[in-house]
Amino acid sequence: MSLRILVSLLSFVSLATACNSLPKRPGESVTTTGKASTLEQKSPIEVALAPIVDASGNTALPAGELRRAFQGALVKRHYSPIALDLVDSKVVKAAYHPGALEEQAVLVIEVQRWDTHLWDTRDVIEVTIRARMLDPENPSGELWSGVLEKRFDFGEIHDQFTTESALTRYACEKISNELLEVMPARQATPGHAKP
Predict the structure, then answer these.
(1) pLDDT one-digit tens code per residue, 47-104
(2) From CA 123, how far away is CA 102, in angstroms rounded?
């Protein structure tokens, strides 16, 4: 077999392989536990988003920005997050007590890993974040739970942002949306809100 035919054949195979690769599905890096039907049956409307639990030990964690991003991700999933200032008014000793605002669910976010050692040079963050939706009537029982473990690379889009804070905000939104993408969206029946 001549070298020219071999090169042509290899080029064709690599092109065919590239054409068959599928884009990554949102939420594919999230591992869920428990039954999604539990959250769907409860169908909470008002959700309190507890302060971020930082177990990462990284002082660069933008906890406030990340919490606001999860608030936006809740809205995309058709939930009504309670104002963060109102939730914070019920925080005692750095913890929120489920049911303090008569909410129907509490979203607890625990950042287990927030690795930014490549952020300054390559705009890369590696995260492990756990989200738990709790029933305030039974805080030890979870309505839904998921863990996101993923490397996020924002290097290719760095030039689209004029400030570092804008890129950080975008990164937090991307991470929160990715994690909550697999959480069941609230299915509201018109004119029949569940209490």
Answers:
(1) 999 999 999 999 999 999 999 999 999 999 999 999 999 999 999 988 899 999 999 9
(2) 40
The Cα–Cα gap between 57 and 21 comes to 37
Neighbours of 176 (CB within 10 A): 25
CA dist., res. 132 & res. 41, Å (int): 16
Q: Does domain 38-180 have CATH number 3.40.50.10610?
A: yes
| Mutual angle of helices 63-76 and 164-180, in 10-degree steps | 50
Tell whether the model's pLDDT for residue 33 goes beyond 60.
yes
What are the extents of the domains in the chain? 38-180
Tokens 């804008």 found at: 166
Does residue 40 contact residue 185 with C-beta atoms inside 8 Å?
no
Nearest to 69 by CA among 146, 189, 179, 191: 179
Residue type, 61: L
**Three-class SS of 133-193:** EEECCEEEEEEEEEEEEEEEECHHHHHHCCCHHHHHHHHHHHHHHHHHCCCCCCCCECCEC
Query: What percent of the chain is modeled with pLDDT above 70?
Result: 81
* First-residue to last-residue Cα distance in the chain: 74
Classified as helix, coil or strand, 129 is strand
Place of tokens 């077999």: 1
